[in-house]
Specification:
- This protein is α/β, with parallel strands linked by helices.
- It has 4 domains: 93 residues, Gyrase A, domain 2, CATH 3.30.1360.70; 161 residues, Rossmann fold (3-Layer(aba) Sandwich); 75 residues, no CATH class; 118 residues, Isoleucyl-tRNA Synthetase, Domain 1, CATH 1.10.730.10.
- Helix content is 50%, strand content 12%.
- It has 21 helices and 15 strands.
- The strands form 4 sheets. Strands 7-6-5-11-12 form a 5-stranded parallel sheet, with helices on both faces. Strands 1-2-4-3 form a 4-stranded antiparallel sheet. A 3-stranded antiparallel sheet has the order 8-9-10.
- β8 and β9 form a beta hairpin.
- It is globular.
- It binds one RNA strand of 77 nucleotides through α2, β9, β10, α11 and β15.
Length: 567
RNA sequence: GCGGUCGUAGCUCAAUUGGAUAGAGCAACAGGCUACGAACUUGUAGGUUGGGGGUUCGAGUCCCUCCGACCGCACCA
């Protein structure tokens, strides 16, 4: 991955000048107006240069000559137009119709100076006033969090971090689905566990939630209330048990999220929305827009008007709103609070996307709700698929995974693939503290730099942090690393634009790889104090970028790696 | 049956959203520590991007069509 670099202080300024000069050259050579904007991108293959523009390819037809010839003519005018460009452009060549540009070392040295100066703020965007609601992780409050939530939590939290870093005002939201029939099931299941404490043969509901995680909750309830529910009628114990179970399970889910390094701005209870009259308000708003009709005693929403397969019930014939009805209200509220809403949902929610899109359109905000689906996860251990059956109750929970592989590895592994591809999670590999494990590779780079800094004379480090000696960085491995570091701002922006935190994970690996190569080629702490200062500055800015990347991903940046013996 | 997502090296995944010779990591093979952490690094090998058509200067990416995997298609959530 090699995104465009737009760092204002260094290469970006150079690029702007180059693009402007090329634009003038194009205007002189190609007739007509409304010429396409001259864009520079980093080519996939860096042998071509630091940046490439395809203007000649785009304009060839209008200029009535082959792209390559046009590229040559553009470049001739380019330098004639502004001879001082030769100071920042070390090379500009036409090849296959592309215009390839290599920047002078000064541009990259400048980038390192900028990183040292701005530190953890390097690449941070100024608040632009955009408000985004980001909902993810949400689970039914009927059991512990499982693997798929680990994936949505990792994706969502990393995206939220990246958005905030870009200056977006993000509200992270967790919806507690506590208004449906599953709460009754929870209440009955918990009641059975409660009774089983004294009557082991008390029947467990057919459709109840299996697994023994409700047992300790039942014990706490018995410790609090004793046996008094044993003789109570169902109409009394059911709401009490459902509410107690929900509160306990939500609290446990919350602890798991915290263990995972994820916090939420808003824990939205669906039941509370009903109680506050929000659901009626949302439905009334649709009614005003003429998007509802009654049929068979139920209220339908005209979602087909917005491309859905069929109209959807939002209030049942018995008067209770459906899940969609509640979501109308919830998103009506979201869209008032935010400019757009992003949801990360599990793989079983495909069919729901069209309905959410309908809600946005119904409130005159088409496209304001976007849905990202996190695909299925297959767990593998020792080369074998770990069977998971919710029915049988032998589900591996997110806590189990955290126990087994730790937070850093879990967070990292969950964001590596694109959200819309299925993920194979190899527990054995994630647990392994070896070079096979990409998260350790990146952390090792960070720890290695920390180690160098511990060894460096304090006054040398001080000079390095001030940017001394950076102009001495000329080795290809030094310039490649500096160039990579300068990609950080654009990488973060690309993460936000594409809702793709995997790009950040891969970027961090590239930074680590470039650093290790630099480390092999260049001795940092040597006899030449100025050169050492420059290299130390480069190393320190690498450490900053690695730490920032890992932090945004929710992964720690250790100052030292603990060596563990592998069996 | 209808709709959605996906299919890329032996394995796990990329590919700047239409750009150049499709890239990393593991696994395999061959090298590199009396140097700041070898949890590192250098190189070799590995591909008809599921198949076939089309769109154009240019396709892993867009369109059509088959094949295959997964997921949806409730007055469930």
């Amino acid at each position: 991955m090699s995104p465009t670099i737009t760092d204002e202080a260094a290469s970006g300024a150079a690029l702007t000048r180059i693009a402007a000069a090329l634009t003038r050259a194009a205007a002189a050579l190609v007739p007509g107006d409304a010429l396409p904007e001259v864009v520079f991108e980093a080519p996939r293959n860096l042998d071509f240069g630091d940046f490439a523009s395809n203007v000649a390819l785009q304009l060839a037809k209008r200029a009535r000559r082959p792209p390559q010839q046009l590229a040559i003519e553009l470049l001739e005018r380019f330098f004639a137009d502004d001879p001082s460009l030769r100071e920042i452009v070390s090379e500009a060549t036409p090849l296959g119709g592309f215009i390839n540009v290599r920047l002078a070392p000064l541009a990259w040295q400048h980038a390192v100076a900028t990183i040292l100066r701005e530190g953890a703020d390097y690449g941070r965007g100024a608040p632009a006033g955009e408000r985004v609601s980001l909902e993810f992780g949400s689970a039914n409050p009927t059991g512990p969090l499982v693997v798929v939530q680990g994936r949505t939590l990792s994706l969502g939290d990393s995206i939220a971090n990246a958005m905030r870093f870009c200056g977006i005002d993000v509200t992270t939201e967790w919806i507690i689905n506590d208004a449906g029939s599953q709460l009754d099931t929870l209440g009955r299941s918990l009641y059975a566990r409660y009774r089983q404490l004294t009557e082991p043969n008390f029947p467990f509901p057919e459709d109840g939630y299996p697994g023994d995680y409700l047992v300790p909750i039942a014990e706490r309830l018995r410790a609090r209330d004793g046996a008094r529910w044993e003789s109570a009628p169902e109409s009394e114990w059911l709401p009490a048990f459902a509410a107690y179970g929900r509160d306990e399970l939500v609290a446990e889910q919350r602890v798991t999220c915290e263990r995972f390094g994820v916090g939420f701005d808003l824990w939205q209870s669906e039941k509370a929305m009903h109680a506050a009259g929000a659901v009626e308000a949302g439905i009334a708003a649709l009614r005003e827009r003429g998007l509802l009709y009654d049929e068979d005693g139920a209220i339908f929403m005209r979602t087909t008007r917005f491309g859905d397969d069929k109209d959807r019930v939002i209030v049942r014939s018995d008067g209770r709103p459906t899940y969609l009805g509640a979501d109308v209200a919830y998103h009506y509220d979201k869209l008032r609070r935010a400019d757009r809403a992003v949801l990360i949902l599990g793989p079983d929610h495909h069919g729901y996307i069209a309905r959410l899109a309908s809600i946005a359109a119904a409130f005159d905000r088409p496209g304001a709700i976007s849905v990202m689906i996190a695909q299925q996860i297959t767990l593998v251990r020792e080369g074998e698929v770990v069977p998971m059956s919710k029915r049988a109750g032998n589900v591996l929970t997110l806590d189990d995974i955290l126990d087994e592989v730790g937070r850093d590895a879990a967070r990292y592994f969950f964001v590596i693939p694109n959200a819309d591809s299925p993920l194979t999670f190899d527990l054995s590999l994630a647990k392994e503290q070896s070079s096979d494990n990409p998260v350790f590779y990146v952390q090792y780079g960070h720890a290695r730099i920390a180690s160098i800094e511990r060894r460096a004379p304090p006054e040398l480090l001080e000079r390095a942090l001030l940017g001394e000696g950076l102009t001495r960085l000329t080795d290809p491995s030094e310039l490649a690393l500096a160039r990579r570091l300068a990609e950080f701002p654009e990488t973060i922006r690309s993460v936000v634009a594409g809702l793709a935190p995997n790009r950040l994970a891969r970027y961090a690996q590239s930074v680590a790889a470039d650093f290790h190569q630099f480390y092999m080629h260049c001795k940092v702490l040597g006899d030449d104090a100025e050169l050492s200062a420059g290299r130390l500055g480069l190393a320190h800015s690498t450490k900053l970028i690695l730490a920032n990347s890992l932090t945004l991903l929710g992964v720690s940046s250790p100052e030292a790696m603990e060596r563990t013996e592998s069996p």
